[in-house]
Amino acid sequence: MKHSKIFSLILISIFVLQNCTIPESRKEYCPENGCLLEKRENPNERYKNEGDELKTNGEFESLDVLDEFPIPPKTPSFIKEGETPRPKKIFSSIGSENVEVRRLGEIYWIYVEALPSKSWPLIKDFFADEEFTLTNDNPAAGKITAQKDENLFLTLEHGIKNNSSEIYLLNEENMSVQLAYFEDLAAYISLNLPGYEGNSIAAQGLNLNKKARIVYVQKEIGIEFRLPFDRTWSALSRAVDKADLKVVDRNRDLKYIQIKLEAQEEGFFTGLFNRDNSVDAEADYELVFSESEGNTILEFKKLSDNEFSVDELVDIINESLS
To answer: Residue 154: is it exposed, middle or buried by C-beta count within 10 angstroms (0-12/13-18/19+)?
Structure first.
């Protein structure tokens, strides 16, 4: 019994001594030139002597840096004291699963308020029900070649509006097929889209190829459309009319639309002593179109001191884009 107690004391002593010793990794390494491990009283304090600046020898100068989220410029704030600004929308995704056949000149397409990955299986179901033979089926590219009485070449793309699709049907001459084909496919999608939960994993990449994005042109907000000018002009004209914006002047040849915005409601005394000079202005904003490498850029030029900011106008147009 006595020996067991002595043995227990020895084990406890060894354990305590081991934990009290300083491991090698924590000791200061002090060769002849001096210690290499500095001890600082405050571990959060930065070293007085910073390291040498990293030299890249110009290796990264040729790299293109794309700033997808640029810092917007400082502009006068029109938000009243105590008000919380509502978050700015980029592109609206509010929809009602609408399906329409649209036309611009001799070009027809089907507009669907659903993502391409959801529209893809519905298109294939339509061809199966109509007993078409699919000779080419590429969901990653959104391409289908179907054959029955004639060859049909279908292209599925993401639309201008978020969560929307555009379907094009062409013949062998690269022209839009007869209107009846568009109407039959649109009717099938419109009938089966509500409540449809199908989704193509292979066509998920099409959801990322959006046709509109926010850009900054000379530090001012704008919208870039991956569309030719004719399509962009048609879409913006439709959005302006749908938003019930008052058009003061519109010139397709000179590529601009001038609009006048209604002043926001104010109190009696605010309107009495702070008269808005924009009431006398013919137009408050000018929408200017320009083309660049097959795309179209929309810029917003303010013509008056109306209290509507560019962000608010973009938000209004965004809600009506389709």
So the answer is: buried
Q: How many CA atoms lie within 13 A of 150 on its CB side?
A: 11
Among residues 208, 221, 203, 104, the alpha carbon closest in space to that of 162 is found at 208
Instruction: State phi, psi for 220 to the nearest 5 degrees.
Output: -115, 145
Question: Residue 317 is which amino acid?
Answer: I
Domain 211-264+276-320, CATH homologous superfamily name and number: Outer membrane protein assembly factor BamC (3.30.310.170)
Report whether pLDDT(237) > 70.
Answer: yes
Architecture of the domain delimited by 99-206: 2-Layer Sandwich (3.30)
Q: What are phi and psi of 231, to 5 degrees?
A: -65, -40
8-17 residue pLDDT tens: 777 777 766 6
Q: Residue 84 carries which DSSP code?
A: P
| φ, ψ at 316 (rounded to 5°) | -65, -45
Give, in order, the Cα–Cα distances in Å from 276 to each of 79, 247, 264.
16, 20, 10
Residue 248: strand, helix, or coil: strand
Distances (CA, A) of 304 to 32, 251, 272: 75, 20, 19
Per-domain residue ranges of the chain: 99-206, 211-264+276-320
Neighbours of 240 (CB within 10 A): 20
CA pair distance 107, 64, nearest whole angstrom: 37
Listed in sequence order, the DSSP H helices in the chain are 2-20, 116-129, 179-192, 229-242, 268-273, 310-320
The encoded tokens of residue 80 equal 């009243």
Q: What is the DSSP letter of 66?
A: -
Indicate the average pLDDT of the chain.
78
d(Cα 201, Cα 155) in Å, to the nearest integer?
A: 17
**Rounded to whole angstroms, how far apart are CA atoms 257 and 259?**
7
